[in-house]
Every structure is written in structure tokens, then in C-alpha cells.
């Protein structure tokens, strides 16, 4: 009980420093897997309002005045967000557009990324039916083989519809196949897939 009270207090006091409580998700994952280290080049997609970026800046020691010279975080979001000291912020940058990808490459400045993080999610309207219809889809090319059936079965657990698509433009003698999954249903906590 005492520990719970102490942890809650610590969390609350830390919360004051972050732009949103999403920070704690990254803190928890990083505590478990030790992903973020000084000197790393990190690309962070879906960064607004910026609490993950704040955590990354801390862990990479990019925070002025103890800025680490070799590391960097490139934080982008299609929405606008206020700059975070120590981070390279790219607001109004939609990850899916070519222009944005060129912006990211330019910010990388010939460096290679050590870690790519994404907390991207579509904006929800609050209307369940609408959001349900507009939830995530997935399209990926695979080479058809003995694991295709398993992949389709695994995806069927988390998507309403899973189709195997062979476009006419794809050569018949090629094993190339596309898996299209629509209507993301979400996952239960700790559910193992794929
Ligand atoms: C849950 S929020 C991220 C919160 C953030 N990790 C934090 O700690 O403050 C999800 C973000 O993904 C962004 N997003 C969704 N699709 C995107 C895209 N195609 N390109 C860039 N950002 C995107 C949204 O604008 C939204 O700000």
C-alpha cells in the first residue's frame, strides 16, 4: 500500500513535467527493454503533443545544457505542435507523404536511424460507428509459401476481413501476393500474434 502511494505520488509529480500521460507508456517500455541510449539517432512518428519526445530527449541527454553531441531525435507529426528543446521537431509532417519523407532524410543528414518509434494513430471522432468504419487497414506484399495460411489466420484474429489479392499487373509466374486486411478489431492485452 505504501509503495502504491509512493509510486502514484512519483508518477503524479513526474506527470507535471510531461505534455501528456502518454509519456508513461514509453517510460514503461524503455524501463523494460532499455531501448533509448545517449548517442542514438531516433525517428519518432506521431509525436504531438510531444511527451514521448520529452522522454527521448531526457534519455538521450539532449536536454540543454547537457546536450549530447552525437545523438538526435527527429520528432514528426501531421498535426502542429510546439517545439521541444533538444529535439528536431517536424510539425505538420504527414509520415505517408513523399515530401515529409524527404524532410526526414534531410534532418537525418546522412546519419542512419538506430531506432524508429511510432505512436501514430488516427484521430478518433468519439462516434464509435464512424471510428469503427475508419479504423486501420493493412496491405503488405508477401511471397506466397507455406506460411501464408498461418499469416492469414493470425491476421483474421485482429482484422474483420483478410483477403489474398493477386493484382492483374502481378506476373502469374511470380509468387508475389498481397495480403489485404481491413477493419482492425484491436487486440486484447498481452495477446500474442504473428
Ligand atoms: C496518440 S498521439 C501521439 C502522442 C505522443 N506519442 C505523445 O506522447 O505526446 C497520435 C498522433 O499520431 C499522429 N498521426 C497520425 N497519423 C499520422 C501520420 N500519417 N503522420 C504523422 N503523424 C500522424 C496524430 O496527429 C497524433 O498526434
UniProtKB/TrEMBL annotation:
Domain Ribosomal RNA methyltransferase FtsJ, first and last residues per copy: 18-134
Active-site positions on this chain: 141 (proton acceptor)
Gene3D superfamilies linked to this entry: Vaccinia Virus protein VP39
UniProt entry keywords in alphabetical sequence: Methyltransferase, rRNA processing, S-adenosyl-L-methionine, Transferase
InterPro entries, per the entry: RNA_methyltr_RlmE, RNA_MeTrfase_FtsJ_dom, rRNA-MeTfrase_E, SAM-dependent_MTases_sf
UniProt entry tagged with the keyword Transcription: no
Tagged with keyword Protein transport: no
Record-linked HAMAP family: RNA_methyltr_E
Protein name (record): rRNA methyltransferase 2, mitochondrial
Naturally occurring in which organism (per UniProt): Euroglyphus maynei
Amino acid at each position: 500500500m505504501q509503495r502504491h502511494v509512493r509510486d502514484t505520488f512519483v508518477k503524479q509529480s513526474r506527470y507535471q513535467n510531461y505534455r501528456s500521460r502518454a509519456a508513461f507508456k514509453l517510460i514503461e517500455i524503455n524501463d523494460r527493454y532499455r531501448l533509448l541510449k545517449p548517442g542514438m539517432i531516433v525517428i519518432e512518428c506521431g509525436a504531438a503533443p510531444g511527451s514521448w519526445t520529452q522522454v527521448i530527449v531526457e534519455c538521450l541527454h539532449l536536454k540543454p545544457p547537457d546536450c549530447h553531441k552525437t545523438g538526435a531525435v527527429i520528432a514528426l507529426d501531421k498535426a502542429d505542435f510546439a517545439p521541444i528543446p533538444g529535439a528536431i521537431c517536424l510539425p505538420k509532417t504527414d509520415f505517408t507523404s513523399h515530401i515529409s519523407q524527404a524532410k526526414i532524410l534531410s534532418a537525418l543528414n546522412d546519419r542512419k536511424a538506430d531506432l524508429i518509434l511510432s505512436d501514430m494513430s488516427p484521430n478518433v471522432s468519439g462516434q464509435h460507428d464512424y471510428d469503427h468504419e475508419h479504423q486501420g487497414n493493412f496491405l503488405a506484399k508477401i511471397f506466397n509459401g507455406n506460411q501464408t495460411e498461418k499469416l492469414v489466420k493470425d491476421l483474421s484474429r485482429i482484422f474483420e476481413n483478410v483477403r489474398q489479392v493477386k493484382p492483374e499487373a502481378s506476373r502469374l509466374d511470380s509468387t508475389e501476393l498481397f495480403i489485404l486486411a481491413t477493419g482492425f478489431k484491436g487486440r486484447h492485452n498481452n495477446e500474442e500474434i504473428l
